[in-house]
């Protein structure tokens, strides 16, 4: 019988798979799979009963019941099968014959290969369990008869309704709302996650199901069709919800097929595969993925917003005084229950309601004014008002968009510092913002293929604006300087509008989205009839929204030519101030962790130098010389008199970028480190050419700082990187400085395999031992050692990350060096391979900035050929790129 069941299941699974790939709906496939399980379970039940001598068919007092998703009649390919064996109430419990049937069915299900969730209960114990646990009650709410004593099942349904539903409405709805809020928070708090959870995230399958469960306890309506009959859901909302639910089920089915097990997270690695399997027509693979994810977010968005609104409607009254939106609870001010009437609306407890359904027909411009009222009175929109806006969006036409009344109101909304983000998000949630600013509307649910963007393009934009808002009254010392810039900003409207439009070019697919965004900004400026000064400022900010960050990270900020060039782009201080604020908001809008301290330090260095240059370029050049002299004097003062010659040599030979990077205390410590290097090598027993190490643990920061001092020599940096890799230490960042007298100071930030500071003394000893060994052997090769470590290591780095490799060679960034930028997924031994690649291409590294963030390596190298000149010839550049691509794409031995 086992072989027969397996064969039947194999044939039926194949049939369902073919139907799925032929375009079968997600709900239809899930229902057919549940029906397939019904057939199997009925046969198993009958066979188990027949195997018990003298037992009636069907046996009285035993029912096989489907619960949970199976009870709902929906199963994805690798979903658990949840069943309950229901037996009569008896002081003796389940009979021996019934227990034999239960065991026979369960063993056969396990042998066939199902993952089964099961329980065996009497009616009274099932009712008791349901009232003890909300999740059990929900699972039993959707119970369905499969086989056995049907009368017993009907008795259970009556008892469940009487003892578990009636009188429990308020408690159950409160628990479901609380559970949903906790679930949303657990899975990211936004539906625009780059890797969304289809089952449990915001806008997920569970949100749809949660609405139905609440609906049943409120109105005894368990389907969307029944909800339409009860008038808690419109027919249009029902169709939108059901389409979205069907799409998500289809995606989940495909994920199960691709992964060959249950999977609920739509990871980056699977998104492209799902798009291809769903036969999206775009020729470019990236565009197929983009369109698929856009469809996903649109459907998830429909589920999220509609179910939230319906849940509000259904819980109204039941949760009076308890359930308020998060925004509403955070809003200060009067929450009096006495209505305030204004402009066709009224507010109660910080919530805004329409006086009638005809308010927008009487005055369409009221649709823009309502958001100004919400801003000024700090109100949230009621579900009824949100629904009414969505139904009247056709009024936002060309006449509306060009009207002076709407322009003036929109201007006023974007001119209130610190209060704009909430209102723009409110507009976006009801699809008003995309109608009024169609250029932004094209970003709705647009997935971004840039690794550090964790949100869709529209969500990223709104988060940026909210980050800017937060500066107005921030108490964090880190943002005090930004707050001062924001508070003195004279025209916040232009900055807010620039943030709203800065990524609009991404919808065009242009190679440089900032260029396309600037063109769209010109169209918006013309439609809003901005003054020439405002228009010029807007286009500058949109066109250059990446310039400050890019120049600070990629150019030599110690080169006065860099400052002069950037100042020529900015032209005036007001532009620079606004660009600084936009850069912060844009950087934080990709995720707070992406706005690292070193990035912030670089942009401030560029900002201050440019400010000085714009104020007085001649004084700027004089001050640079003065700053260096003052720094040297301060360092000399901190050290003993016998350090005078060493300080002079240090400031004469160390590159300028070093002194722009470190403060007096750091420089003093480094000079002392150099002295210890000389003393131990020329006055002690240490070999003269051996490098010196200093390890400083920073447990609170999750890394250790490692200083390395040595004489410069061939492949030194590569061998240091190889030594770290052999000890299984991940290099988070590195600053490399070569003195004019051939001494080297390299400062690394490293962590162990648990992303913690290095506290095991064996690891530093291993690093130092391997480095000395490699320096003594000219042809020492770390590759076999790294391969061996990688093979036995449970590598926690994001190896195989879906993140594109980019290698750029730029000869315009610096007058004396060629700039090489590398962006690629990190892995053990990567930096070693890259540095070996430079050496193999006969390239010398003068300065470098090595950074690892969230599994991605982003490294910048200032290089020359061995003659100290830029790499200008095409052949040399091609050879360098080929060597680096070969180094980056090196596959660990166990995967070759």
Alpha-beta content class: alpha+beta
Mean of residue pLDDT values = 87
Helix content: 55-70%
The number of distinct β-strands equals 16
Radius of gyration: 33 Å
Content of β-strand? 5-15%
What spatial form do the alpha-carbon principal axes imply?
Answer: globular
User: What composes the largest sheet?
Assistant: 8 strands, antiparallel
What does this protein structure show overall?
The protein has 896 residues and is an alpha+beta fold. Strand 9 and strand 10 (703-711) form a beta hairpin. Helix 11 (235-259) crosses helix 12 and helix 31 crosses helix 32 (617-638). The longest helix is centred in the middle third of the chain and has 31 residues, at 285-315. The chain is globular. The protein starts with a helix and ends in an 8-residue tail after the last helix.
């Amino acid at each position: 019988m086992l072989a027969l069941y397996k064969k039947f299941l194999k044939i039926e699974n194949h049939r369902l798979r073919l139907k799925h790939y032929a375009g079968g709906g997600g709900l239809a496939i899930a229902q057919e799979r549940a029906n397939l399980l019904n057939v199997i379970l009925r046969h198993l039940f009958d066979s188990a009963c027949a195997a018990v001598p003298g037992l009636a068919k069907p046996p009285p007092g035993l029912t096989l019941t489907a619960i949970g998703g199976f009870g709902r009649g929906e199963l994805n390919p690798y979903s658990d099968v949840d069943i309950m064996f229901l037996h009569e109430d008896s002081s003796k419990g389940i009979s021996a014959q019934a227990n034999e049937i239960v065991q026979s069915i369960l063993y056969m299900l396990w042998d066939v290969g199902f993952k089964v969730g099961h329980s065996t209960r009497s009616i009274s114990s099932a009712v008791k369990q349901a009232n003890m646990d909300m999740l059990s009650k929900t699972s039993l709410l959707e119970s369905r008869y499969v086989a056995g004593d049907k009368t017993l099942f009907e008795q259970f349904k009556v008892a469940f309704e009487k003892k578990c539903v009636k009188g429990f409405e308020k408690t159950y709805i409160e628990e479901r709302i609380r559970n949903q809020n906790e679930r949303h928070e657990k899975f990211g708090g936004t539906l625009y996650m780059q890797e969304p959870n289809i089952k449990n995230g915001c806008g997920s399958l569970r949100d749809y199901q949660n609405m139905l469960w609440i609906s049943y306890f409120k109105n005894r309506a368990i389907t969307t069709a029944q909800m339409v009959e009860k008038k808690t859901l419109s027919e249009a909302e029902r169709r939108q919800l059901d389409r979205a639910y069907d799409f998500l089920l289809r995606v989940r089915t495909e994920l199960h097929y691709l992964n060959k097990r249950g999977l609920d997270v739509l990871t980056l690695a699977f998104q492209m595969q799902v798009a291809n399997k769903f036969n999206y027509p775009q020729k470019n693979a990236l565009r197929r993925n983009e369109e698929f994810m856009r469809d996903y977010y649109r459907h998830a968005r429909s589920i999220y917003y509609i179910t939230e609104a319906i849940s509000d409607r259904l819980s109204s009254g039941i949760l009076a005084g308890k359930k308020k939106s998060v925004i509403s609870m955070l809003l200060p001010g009067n929450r009096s229950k006495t209505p305030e009437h204004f402009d066709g609306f009224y507010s109660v407890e910080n919530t805004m309601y329409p006086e009638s359904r005809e308010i927008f027909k009487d005055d369409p411009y009221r649709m823009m004014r309502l958001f100004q009222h919400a801003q000024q009175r700090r109100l949230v929109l009621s579900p009824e008002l949100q629904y009414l806006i969505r139904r009247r969006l056709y009024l936002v036409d060309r006449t509306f968009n060009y009207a002076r009344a709407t322009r003036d109101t929109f201007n006023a909304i974007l001119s209130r510092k610190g209060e704009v983000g909430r209102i723009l998000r409110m507009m976006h949630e009801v699809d008003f913002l995309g109608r009024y600013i169609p250029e932004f509307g094209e970003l709705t649910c647009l997935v971004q293929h840039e690794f550090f963007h964790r949100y869709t393009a529209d969500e990223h934009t709104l988060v940026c604006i909210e980050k800017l808002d937060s500066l107005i009254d921030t108490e964090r010392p880190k943002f005090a300087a930004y707050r001062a810039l924001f508070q003195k900003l004279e025209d916040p409207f232009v900055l807010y509008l620039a943030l709203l439009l800065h990524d609009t070019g991404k919808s065009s697919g242009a190679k440089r989205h900032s260029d396309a965004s600037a063109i769209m900004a010109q169209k918006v400026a013309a439609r809003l009839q901005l003054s020439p000064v405002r228009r010029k400022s807007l286009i500058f900010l949109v066109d250059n929204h990446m310039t400050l960050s890019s120049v600070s990270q990629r150019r030599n900020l110690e080169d006065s030519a860099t400052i002069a060039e950037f100042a020529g782009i900015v032209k005036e201080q007001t532009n620079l101030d606004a660009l600084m604020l936009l850069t912060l908001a844009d950087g934080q809008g990709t995720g707070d962790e992406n706005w690292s301290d070193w990035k912030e330090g670089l942009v401030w260095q560029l900002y201050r130098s440019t400010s000085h240059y714009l104020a007085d370029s001649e004084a700027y050049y004089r001050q640079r010389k003065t700053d260096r002299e003052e720094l040297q004097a301060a360092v000399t003062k901190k050290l003993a008199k016998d350090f005078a010659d060493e300080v002079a040599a240090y400031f004469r030979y160390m590159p300028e970028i070093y002194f722009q990077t470190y403060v007096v205390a750091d420089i003093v410590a480094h000079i002392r480190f150099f002295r210890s290097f000389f003393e131990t090598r020329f006055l002690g027993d240490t070999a003269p050419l051996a490098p010196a190490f200093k390890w400083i643990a920073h447990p609170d920061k999750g890394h250790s700082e490692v200083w390395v001092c040595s004489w410069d020599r061939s492949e030194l940096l590569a061998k240091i990187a190889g030594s770290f890799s052999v000890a299984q230490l991940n290099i988070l960042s590195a600053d490399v400085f070569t003195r004019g007298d051939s001494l080297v100071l390299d400062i690394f930030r490293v962590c162990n395999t648990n992303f913690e500071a290095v506290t095991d003394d064996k690891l530093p000893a291993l690093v130092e031992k391997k480095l000395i060994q490699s320096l003594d052997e000219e042809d020492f090769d770390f590759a076999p050692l790294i391969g061996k470590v990688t093979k036995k290591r449970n590598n926690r780095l994001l190896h195989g990350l879906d993140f594109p490799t980019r290698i750029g060679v730029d000869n315009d960034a610096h007058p004396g060096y060629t700039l090489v930028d590398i962006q690629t997924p990190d892995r053990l031994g990567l930096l070693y391979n890259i540095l070996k690649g430079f050496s193999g291409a006969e390239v010398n590294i003068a300065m470098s900035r090595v950074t690892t963030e969230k599994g991605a390596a982003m490294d910048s190298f200032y290089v020359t050929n061995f003659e100290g000149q830029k790499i200008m010839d095409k052949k040399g550049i091609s050879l360098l790129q080929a060597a680096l691509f070969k180094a980056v794409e090196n596959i660990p031995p166990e995967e070759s």
